[in-house]
Amino acid sequence: MFEFIKRLFRKNELKESNEEVVIIAGLGNPEKKYFGTRHNVGFATIDALCDKYGIELTETKFNAAYGKGMIGDHKVLLMKPLTYMNKSGEAIGPMCHFYKVSPENDLIVISDDIDQDVGNIRVRPKGSAGGHNGLKSIIAHCGTDGFSRIRVGVGRKPQGMDLADHVLSHFSKEEEAGLKSAIENAMAAIPVILNEGTDAAMNRFNRKVV
Question: Is 170 one of the annotated active-site residues of the chain?
Fold first, then answer.
C-alpha cells in the first residue's frame, strides 16, 4: 500500500505544468559549511536576486529550493539545486521538464568561474562545460549545452594548491569588493537577457575589471 501511494505521488509530481516561466538557477553546495565559498557564488547571486525582487525560496520540488516572482514583465522561478554541485542537472532537468521550459530559450544558469579574476563575469548563450562539473551535469540531464549562463569569476587557483581546496575556500577581505561588484553585475545582466537577449548582455558585461 505504501509503495503504491509513493508511486502515485511521484506520478502526479512529474505531470507537466502549463505555467510559462523562465528558470534562473544558481549553482552551489547546500550545506552551511559551504556558504560563502567560491563554489557557491551561484547561490549567493540567487540570494541577492531574492532580496532585490522580493522572492522567497519557500517551495521544494525535484530536490531544489525555489520561489516564483517577477523581474520586470517576466515571470521567473529562482532555484537552488540541493543535489550538490556535480549533480545539479538532477534538479534542473526535471524542473525544466515539469514547467515545459526549453533550456535554449528559458533557462539561465549562474555558476562560478575559476578562469576569471574576482570581479569579472562572463555571459554566454551556450557552450561546453569547460571542466565545470555542475554545468556538465546540467548538459547531460537537459540534453543540450545551448542554455544561457552567467559565470562569476572567483579567481584562478594559486600555484601548488589543490583545485578542490581552492573552490571550497572563502574569499579574502581584499576580494570582497570585487565579489560584490561581480554579483551586482550578474544581477544586472538578468533583466538584459530577459528583455534584449543574451548577446546584448554579453556586449554589456563581458569586460574585464581593470
Answer: no
Residue with cell 549533480: 87
> For residue 144, which phi and psi values (nearest 5 degrees)?
-160, 150
The verdict on domain 20-205 having CATH code 3.40.50.300 is no
Angle made by CA atoms 67, 72, 75, in degrees to the nearest 5: 40
Distance CA 143, CA 141 (A): 6
Which residues does 46 contact at the CB level (< 8 Å), separation at least 6?
A: 24, 25, 26, 57, 78, 79, 80, 110
On the 0-12 / 13-18 / 19+ scale of CB atoms within 10 A, 42 is buried
Catalytic position from the list 39, 74, 132, 141: 39
Per-residue CA distances from 118 to 2, 52, 132, 208, 210 (Å) = 51, 22, 17, 10, 11
Non-local CB neighbours of 11 within 8 Å, separated by 6+ positions? none
Residue 99 φ/ψ, nearest 5 degrees = -95, 10
Tens-level pLDDT at each residue, the chain (210 residues): 444 434 444 444 555 667 889 999 999 999 999 999 999 999 999 999 999 999 999 999 999 999 999 999 999 999 999 999 999 999 999 999 999 999 999 999 999 999 999 999 999 999 998 889 999 999 999 999 999 999 999 998 888 888 889 999 999 999 999 999 999 999 999 999 999 999 999 999 997 665
